[in-house]
Fold each of these.
Amino acid sequence: MDFSMTPGTFLFEAWQARFSLLNGLSVTIGSSAITIVLATLLGILVGITLAYGWWPLRLLARLYVDFMRGIPVLVLILFTYYGLALFGINVPAFWAGVIALSAFATAHVAENLRGAVQSVPAGQMEAAKSIGLRFDQRLRYVIIPQAFRRMLPPWVNTGLEVVKGTTLLSVIGVVELLLASQQVMARNYLIIDFYLLAGAMYLAVNFALAQLGGMLERRFSYLRY
Amino acid sequence: MINYHFDWSVIARNMDRFLAALGLGLGLAVISLAIGCVLGLAVAYARVSPRRWLSGPAWFYVELIRCMPLLLLIFFIYFGLPEFGIYFMDKTQSFVLTLSLYAAAYMSEVFRAGLASIPKQYVEAAKAIGMRPWQRQRYVVLPVMFRITLPAISNNLISLFKDTSLAAAIAVPELTFLARQVNANTFRVMEVWLTASAMYLATAYLLATLLRLVERRYASIR
């Protein structure tokens, strides 16, 4: 690698491409953040349905989760991208991708929440019932706080999967970090250098996210039974 | 959806291609898992080794691969290796190489956990009856470890099978690539993607059921 600042060297080209790369990085981070928030909210709903729902609803949730986990994310993304238009919903590729990724991550969060909630000893639920708490109070004050610590590590893993999954949005033409890097490479043919740069950026984002997860885990390590 | 008329004849006409593409994806997953298991076992032994010059690089390799998007790895190996003068691979071989390296990182974590979960007494007993180090591994540690890790191995096979869909990005003619092609040629959006989804789902489900049978067969000796 040549480190001088003349046209055709890595540093020069990277500096020239700084805005498109940073733009790609922001799209990657933005889509990941939206997906993680959506998937967490919906996943909590679906997960609670899986654990406590009325049985037809529970069956539906179970079918949804198993479907989502059996289909590759890329197929989901392509299906959503081409399929939504048929319903008369004309969304940009970015939103089609975010919807597909959220649908996928929702299933993972839901399954993870179900596991965590069911791993709380049954006596806790019974005790909460016997002191007369309503269902929402039992969840809010007794079950969720105890399940929270259990679901934290897999939740962080789902977050990492989502960040890595956003690369698939490049397939439907969303200019996120990977596609932005490839566009830069198409201009200057510095293939190795820019793939390594993109890799380092993903590594940085994922590493930061994993550290954040570790911090959360330590912060909530007192929640134990 | 109001004005959409289903026309499944497109799918029926292309069914042989769909099945061949599905078979290719399954084959890619199985080969990559096999290579990944061998590599992963080596990496797992390197990671539990007391020698820092072995465990350090192994740790770095696993963490690096696990933090990288698979699609980036696929592109890096497909477009990047020729820059280093490695020309002999076609796109399918290049994809198998990528998926194997990817699988190796994940399998090594599985095997590392498996190695750690083997009771010390097993190895001590093997020592006591005078087995050599490699005999202890071959006849005591590895058979037990494979039984313990079998469920995790089958999970990995299923997720590798789903990951073969990414081969579409470098035009390996597996199911997702074919579905995109047929979709572009015929515009039968719903039929094509429903078929592809159903095929992935059915195969994943079948694999899971089959592997559970295998697990039950071998779980008896613990």
Amino acid sequence: MEYILDVQNIHTFIGQYHILQGVDVRVPKGSITALLGRNGAGKTTTLKSIIGLTPPREGKVIYEGKEVQDMRSFDIASKGIGFVPEHRAIFRDLTVEENLKIAERVKGDYLRKKEFIFDLFPDLKRLMALSGTALSGGQQQMLAIARALVADNHLLLIDEPSEGLAPVIIEHMMKAIRLLSKDSTIVLVEQNFLVASQLAEYYVIIEEGRSVQAGSMKDLANDKAAIHRYLGAA
Amino acid sequence: MSSYFRKNYVLLITLSVIAALFVAAAQGMEKKDFVITLLRGLSVGSLTFLVASGFSLIFGLLDVLNLAHGTLFMIGAYIGWTVFVRPDTFVDLLTPLALILSGFALGDVYPLLATRIRLGLSVKRILPWALVLVSILIFGFILPRYPISIWDVENYGQSPVTYSFMADQGTRLLAPVAAFTEISAPLALIGLLLASIIGAFGLSLFNSVTQQQFKLNWKNYAGFAILLLVALLTFIFNESLTASLTGLSSNWLFVIAVLVATLSGAGLGALIESTLIRPLYIRPIYQLMLTLGMSAIGIEIVRAIWGRPEFVMPKPVFFNGSGGVCPATNFADWWANNCSTILLLDGRVRVYNEIFIPIVGLVVLISIWMLLQRTRLGMVIRAGVQDREMVEALGINVRRVFTMVFALGVGLAALGGILAAPSMGLSNAMGESLFLNALIALAIGGLTNYPGAALGSVLVGLIQQFIIKYGQIGIAIPFTDIIFKPTPPLVPASTVLLMVIILLILPNGLLGKKE
Amino acid sequence: MTQQINSRLSAFFSTHRAALFTLLVLILLPFIVGLMDGESPMMVFANESGNSKFAQGLAIEIFILALYALSFDLIFGITGMLSFGHSMFFGVGAYLTGIAIKTFGLSLPATLGLVFIAAIVQAILFGLVLPRVKGITFALVTLGLGSVFHIVVMSSELGPYTGADVGLQGVIVPAFISPANERLRFYFIALTILILVYLIYKRFVDSPTGRVCVAIRENEGRARMLGYNTFYFKLAALTLSSLTAALAGFMHTLYQPIVSPNIAGMGFTVTALLIILIGGVGTLSGALVGAVVYRLLDFGLRRYIGESASFISGAVYVLFVLFIPFGIVGTWKMKSLQIKQGWQRIQKLFG
């Protein structure tokens, strides 16, 4: 199998705290891979370590065959990785349009991708001139994802897309993510096991800063013991 | 609409109280006094704004409280003065400065060089220090021997004060031309270039080398080539350049002085950010201390170079005319005679201080606003103020933006300095008092809020000037015969009092966002 | 019984060896300097002018600076409040002492009482703004308050009282502690005060109140979540700090012939920052070490370099920030194990 992203035994510190103590994640090209685990297990830190916001002290992050763990964040992102942070961190002082424009990596990205984004999230079209503060939670999440689509990204890192959203909007979001996975590979951090199991083909379970189990989502759905042990869900 | 009132009633009440005070203050004086005081307030407000806006941009994006901002304002003033009054010194300085900078212009080349050289671990550790040391030694040897026709702080006949006074009288004194004596010219030039390259290489080795793929093209060498060319040309045509600059009218010299001061301010800012501030982003409180230390060092440098006495920079002739029809009563008269003062509603207004400076302030206000709102850089800055990490994760090199914003902020302060030099005069303390003004203005307006910086600066300027004016004419206290004259110490005290009151009512300032 | 006391005593001596040694040196310092210069201890007792008297004077200045720096370390290093108006705490003590003695002819104890009352009032004044403003805004407000005080002191209207920009002079100090004639006595009084204050500070930082102050520095939100009303703890730290700084100011006025208005300016706050930065922020003993290094460095530079001394001290300051951010004491504490091992290795080499 061809892996677009190969995270090998990374150790990440935040301040003095040893947050990640050996995480391996392998992401096959074109798949949706979910990072699962309890609160505070280190899923978000894993995503941030991949994109270089919390650079790992040890281990390797190999993206498209190149080691990127020592690079600066913007360099890594420029190689074609889109990041959708948790808590829908859009730029609230910018308008919706500016939020999209700022993600341009090559001039003209925004104009090129505009139609595609509006097809995916028709709501955004009529909100263009509003500032980020005026958006509802679901709209903010759509904008955060849309922002990662402006530039040509081959890999999307999406952190908690369903967090705090109404079921109807979660449905919509899942549909959008499925559509996106046709063109790009997606790594998903998801608390909601139901959502994750419906979307992802592969999974990695992270427990106390270590990756403890990985495989195909179909196998996990039948492995009630593992679900109970690591995720606490029924 | 009503919800807006409910949300912001504290702000609205505060603003209306300030407005009422202002109207009351206007009632108490004659119309001509009022006009002059208003314009003076705007003038001080504009200068304050130039310092405050840069400071607030830097604080907003970088989270660095640049306490050296006032000192940099002062340095801008002194640099501008030098260019204006002593073109010969300026031309003499161009060559060595261009050479010193040229090595640093090769910044992208060094990491590549470093990866090419294979060395033992212990050598690798010592090498940067050794290189920097060698570079400092060479500089220390050559620079004192490099001839620059400068003033003599100790000697009254050739002190900055005298040069400034003579320029005001219309003669530009020039010191005798200094020549190479102890060291031959080519040796000095090549030595400076070499020391610069060695030093820049050494400094670049301190940063951990990342595995970046460098593609070197002509752009990496362009800056180097341009600086080298500038150095050579200014060296060869030194005398003719000096002659032509001295021959220029003081208007053009003033324009050049403003440009040079602003640009060197920006350059200094970029240098400070990339060398001193950058290693300390992980320890914010130490940045504060660093800028404090830089401020002290800056004042000492100014004292060493320009001395302690205060002096005034002459105004360019465009604002310094006098003659039959002056003070001018209308625009045409003023334009024809370049009167230094103009009559406005019976008030005698100094054109440079009270009209030109506020106009520049307004132009800067609008252009920075446009930069922030209309350009991609501005968008990145606004986004970065809110969430730096996310901007970086979008593939934008935030550090480069940091350097640019720091350069912009310091450049603005230096611009304020050179503009203030003809009106406020030059002194070792000019930065401190204006910086205090700017801090108060920002605290009033909201620390990272751009319109807030403008509002706060204007408020501070107006309050100070009105109190100064009332110090002269006195306030009649209602229902009594007592006339109260605010004394000079009340001027700064009043703005501080306003700041404390406003911060107690609105802890984030008038326009600052609630956390 | 005696055995128990003995063992306790020996334990006390062994744990505080360095401190006790320093204390001994400080007590003997005037006599050692005297002996080195050929003066007998009797001459030192008689306060005859010479190197010993000069050294005492320098040491007194260091003690006063150390007191002042300690008070700043308490609110900045321990409690985490960055105040840019700290020189006001010192200035109020200094000027009030001068004015009370010179203009109103108060006795020394009455003056000291007045100074302490003023210090408490002042701490409450700073405390008033505390609940509203935090962090940078607190720094700005205190900067504002401090500069207003500086301006008031400098104003010519108050010239008869404060001496305006010339400085306050002509304060007649009671003969029994006159720094000119009874400097040795002054020296020991200053030393005693410094030691007492240092011990009080140590006790305060180790007390539950002090621990909450440290918690406030680390994370005020969490300290409040634990149920502490952080305002009172900050106010306590401010009050103690204000009292100490005012005491330092009180001693400064008694010791110096002229009280320069510079001590009320921003520059003097920076001095405090500089001292605790050199010594180590938040370590208390760092303030003492820093004061010694700072004053001696300043003294030496002024003597041998002259005018541009403050340029060098500014550069030292920047270098400290960049390369020794934890100061002398802080770095010592962190590396003490390594340093000890290094010593042992050297001892092995020779033994």
Amino acid sequence: MFKKILIANRGEIAVRVARTARSMGVRTVAVFSDADAGAPHVAACDEAVRIGPAPARDSYLRQDIILSAAAATGAEAIHPGYGFLSENAEFADAVAAAGLTFIGPTAETIRAMGSKSAAKDLMEAAGVPTTPGYQGADQSLNTFAREAERIGYPVLLKATAGGGGKGMRRVDASEDLADAVASAQREGASSFGDDRLLVEKYIETARHVEVQIFGDGKGEVVHFFERDCSVQRRHQKIIEEAPAPNMPADVRARLLAAGVQAGKAVDYRGAGTVEFLYDGGENVYFMEMNTRLQVEHPVSEMITGVDLVEWQLRVAAGEPLWFSQENISEFGHAIEARIYAEKPDADFAPSIGRVAHLSFPPPDVARIDSGVRAGQEVTPYYDPMIAKVIVHAGDREAAFARLSTALEATRVAGLETNTDFLRRLAAHPAMVAGDVSTRFIDEHRDYLFPAETVSDHARAALLFALECEARAAARPAHAADGPWASLMGFRLNKPAKAVYWLDEGGEPAIARVLTDPDDPALRHAEIETQTAAALRRKGDVQSDIRTFSFRAEGTPDALSIEIDGLARKGAVAETTEGWRVFIGEASADFRRLDPLSGAGADGSAAGSLKAPMPGVVTALKVEAGARVAAGDTLIVMEAMKMEHAIKAPGAGRVTGVRFAVGDQVGDGALMVDFEPEA
Amino acid sequence: MTATVASLIVRPPDRGDRAGVLDVVAAAFESSQEARLVERLWADGSIVTERLAEESARIVAYAAISPVTISRAGDERGHHFATELGLAPVAVSPRQQNRRIGAKVVNATIDAAFQQHPERLLFVLGDHAYYRRFGFIPAEPMGYRWEGGSVGDAFQVRARTSPMAPRAPRTHGSTELNQTVVRYCDAFGIFDEEPT
């Protein structure tokens, strides 16, 4: 076995590899970029080497620097994790050339599986089922029509050189083929300069299933059963499980056999994954082979009890597989949910920022593979995954119940995450029933993206946390545990009343909290938005005051709120902008308000070249032809007794000025002609 | 100025109408504060103009306009450099709502105020969906902020004419600075039991 390995990765996978290595008595070397100086993976390893600036191409993708780090620290082998250099054949060669061991398959295997069409040809030759299709040189319509008929509609036309869905057409019937071929060829030609097409069977209600294989590199290949990764967003997996639900035993047997067959076709070494499309019926089709450890490998580990990283290291160190297929058994059901820093409501766009608060369920509920700590910045440089929450239970239903519990106790504050979205996903009846496909999120959009609502429990939790904060601030330090501590806030004769500002639906609101005179644990809250208050006061008859009563117990870190007999547990975490309240299954963000500051008017209107409203031109700051920089004032106009500056929206040239000083300008009139700099 | 529609009469109140006006204002709002506000406005002599609507000798609606002061943020309680107008309160007897009586009394009040002060701006705090019909536009994008803070499009402004053509440039500042605060007159201090 190796004495020391270098882990050429970051985040949770680097931490995870280090954990196993340490348990085997193998010392570990971390590499880190400037952005990761204090990252958990650095702390998880015995040594660490700084390899460059934040961008991955200057650090985690720098083969030369990583190899020198290995040489400088005396590491004998390099574990590439996933992503970065893990499927880079050139790197695998370079590691070998440096006299070190690459913990993964051979460079030859990586190369063979790197090209999707070459991999498909190789698998077809090895007898692995692939999507029926035609990828010949004859590009005549007659040939396509004949092949489509042979494959059976619906078919998928793909640009041979294509990618990203460009030049791709689904064709449902023969009469649509000619048009689809013509337009796919046009798109292929314009996008890739190559109008060649291939035609494939279109797999409906496709599920994404994959077989975890493991080979010794000498022809022996075993499988660790399959995973279902059908639930994806933006073509990225978010929930993975093992075994695959609702798959007939005979299909499963063929799937696993096909996975092993694929591994044997390339004398696979180490851990690999063979991905298939499953049509939900009798057929599985080879899609591609991933020559690395997958993000979702833990679900296979959970059901088989095997540490895949340990065996990666053993096989790389030249040990034989100590087991054969009969020794590998499975128990129960495992699910992994990926917690990402992202905005589900904004099409899962990544969100960045500082992780202000991070807490996870205890180990008896879930395995947490995380590479982020509280206080750390999630930067735009790397994958925004915060953690993997992995649960294991006797059956699938129990596993989903456990996942819900685990996700409730997964609390991230400071930036937006998909945790609430995952909770809804995990609780969806169709999900629990195993009725999954790659279109799951689109098909259940209404349920998964509910209109945002803040519950009274969440409001009450925040009010209670604010009360605790105020009490802590009012209490002299030396009296914190004194006999009077519990009486703080309690006044004779007068019911204790407190007033707070909070954010209600993005609007400032006033909350008055009255402690019940007869029951000190009971509080009565009244919340009124500033607009509602203003309307009520200043001229409108309507008023909207939300009132509710609650009982609160505990501390902001672990509180319980009871409203109308329904008690919910949760926590309140402070963030840079305010607070994130976790209560029951949901979370809600509240901004901290400075009632004196008031929100500023939107400055973006100044970027417009149009009059914000009717007014009079009072000054021209530029002439036609002038070159200006972003934000330069072009024209000043006056309206409603205010000067409004019309500013350049970017660098460019003013090609015309449409008004003179003293001119009346209508609402929305274009004031200048502007040509942005190319 | 008296407008008559059917049996509805809109006119300035006289001293004998005060009890009836306070009844309408108290009935229109859940709290008694608005009625106390009107009493304070009368006592302080802060009314610029006011109108009531009367039907069958019963007062059914009331609106008033009082001065507002314009100042720089951070100087709300100190020096102010301009006076404009503020519409408040607008009260319609709860049983007479949705009969456009409010619109009639508001229009009459605005017309009267602009007749006396054609160069002034008029501000209102209220539902923009309602007040837009009177020519109000959101004031915050125009650079004006209610002293109580940002309230979205609830704080609104209009001038006598639209577009307003000021004869001599006399501005309250620039929208760029975004620090022009509008403060209602002292009588509105009765609302200040609200936390700040």
